[in-house]
Amino acid sequence: MALPTPVPLVLVHGLWDTPNLFRRLEQRLAGRRDPLLVPHLPHGLGEKPLLDLAHQLGRMVDQRFGAGRAVDVLGFSMGGLVARTWLQLAGGEGRVRRFTAVGSPQRGSLLALLGPRRWLASIADMRPGSPLLRQLNGDLSTLEGTECCSFWCLADTMVVPSWTGVLPLGRRQQLPVWHHKQLISHPAALEPIVAELLRP
Questions:
Q1: What are the chain's domains?
Q2: Which pLDDT score is estimated for 118?
């Protein structure tokens, strides 16, 4: 009897991050979620609109796994919005089996109001009530076929207010860590995240 084909996992980094962000998570996974794609999505200081990054993500997923193969996706911080934009608006609908958002400003962050809209499009997209967020949250039907899970922490100073950093659907878990980056690096956060990613 043939073994079931494993579902690939895609890890999407956030603003001013690189794939190195996920080094500790990859060590914890220890090859148990292969095949794994950890793409680099350069966005400068934040000039690229999230929809552009979402299309780029979709092309990289297609190149690695083919255009029709189902995947699981984890997005950290802005990466959670990039992944969600791909899922809902840029060709990922029907392909994402499970979507995990970690410390991700799904309803925006007040900190994004500090960035100049004219030059920092990706940051402008993360403003509460931005056109992109209104579009994503205005029609949740494209998320309904995907298992969603959100991890967040109360002391997050990047997603402000922190409790808005969750997806509108699915399970939510508050993690016992003290700042944004610990959500993807601290053992107390990595343990439940790995458990989620290894669910049968």
A1: 9-197 (3.40.50.1820)
A2: 67
